[in-house]
């Protein structure tokens, strides 16, 4: 039977569809919300309403913001470096921003090429990238180090061949604070090849 | 810097306060919501609004429902067994309902006695339990098998001494599907003591 009535059951089922939450943790989350009705449930309800109205996808780069163009695309200082970082996903853009990579711009592909999953060039924001790439002097390919990520990087590199745009990728290596014996051999050998003088 | 504007940042911070979600998973959840705006974000927003309006705490048992008395307290068949199960939390009530324990009623204490944390009898729904216990022939104490849970069980047992109400507790034993070598010794020795003929 459904515990707590249809309104509560439906809230549990919707929350269970969020990444990282299953039916069990969604139930715990809903009980927590109900317990903290004034301090958490009401503010969350209001914040969600506000976000639904405010959220836009940036028509230039694919970032998520409350304006389009987004605050990064609209900031002229972001253009001065001439660096455009290509990422798979908005989450990657946010991660680079948290890392404080500096006054750069981004381009969100919205995925990676994956012939097996039926994802071709037209399914990604690739033409938008090729069109705006010419405004930048360097394109940093920051796709994940997966087969699909690297296939996508090759595709973009090919498309930009013959231009004078510098195409680079993120360095491979040992994560800061990472322990060597937890790393795969590919990372280790790349880290050794790319070793630097101290 | 805040990624995605103040509306998104605030939503992340509120979601991060749910049990099982941290700042990282809250960010992922919000990005997922934004990606699935029509299919998930809008329905979740509406469901939360409805739940905020509908949710009530049952004045009889402490359950969470959309009516008070809750559907369990209002159902006369639930009273026929004469069994009242005392739980710490609404989550425990829901777990017992999912387990299909039958036509019983519940009483939610809202916590356990914990002198170290300053939780005394007046902080729990204990007087309500003592008052309604006399309508039942058996009180099953289903608090967690912690020191505080057992202290609370003793307190209730003492309060009901001298009445003709039968006070019981859940059996200890090996969880169904549980592996012996992952169990603590207390559980194992209790399971051996309570062994049954096959
Ligand atoms: Zn943008
Ligand atoms: Zn009730």
TrEMBL record, chains A, B:
A zinc finger (C4-type) spans 58-73. May play a role in DNA repair. It seems to be involved in an RecBC-independent recombinational process of DNA repair. It may act with RecF and RecO. It comes from the Bacteria. Keywords: DNA damage, DNA recombination, DNA repair, Metal-binding, Zinc, Zinc-finger. SMART domains: TOPRIM. Belongs to the RecR family. InterPro entries: DNA_Rcmb_RecR (IPR000093), Rcmb_RecR (IPR023627), Rcmb_RecR_Znf (IPR015967), TOPRIM_dom (IPR006171), TOPRIM_RecR (IPR034137). It comes from Devosia marina. This is Recombination protein RecR. Residues 82-175 form the Toprim domain. NCBIfam families: recR. Transmembrane segments: none annotated. One of its GO terms (biological process) is DNA recombination. It holds the Pfam family RecR_HhH. One of its GO terms (molecular function) is zinc ion binding. The gene is recR.
């Amino acid at each position: 039977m459904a515990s707590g009535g249809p309104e509560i059951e439906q809230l549990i089922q919707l929350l269970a569809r969020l990444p990282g939450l299953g039916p069990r943790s969604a139930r715990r989350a809903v009980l927590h919300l109900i317990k903290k009705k004034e301090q958490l449930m009401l503010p969350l309800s209001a914040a969600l309403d506000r976000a639904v109205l405010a959220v836009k996808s940036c028509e230039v780069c694919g970032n998520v913001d409350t304006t389009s163009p987004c605050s990064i695309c609209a900031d002229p200082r972001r253009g001065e470096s001439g660096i455009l970082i290509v990422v798979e996903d908005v989450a990657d853009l946010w991660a680079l921003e948290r890392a404080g990579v500096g006054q750069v711009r981004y381009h969100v592909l919205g995925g990676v090429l994956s012939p097996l999953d039926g994802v071709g060039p037209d399914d990604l924001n690739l033409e938008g990238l090729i069109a705006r790439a010419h405004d930048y002097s360097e394109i940093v390919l920051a796709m994940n180090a997966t087969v699909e990520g690297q296939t996508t990087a090759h595709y973009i590199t090919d498309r930009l061949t013959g231009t004078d745009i510098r195409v680079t990728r993120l360095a491979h290596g040992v994560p800061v604070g990472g322990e060597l014996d937890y790393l795969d051999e590919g990372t280790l050998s790349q880290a050794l090849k790319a070793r630097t003088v101290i």
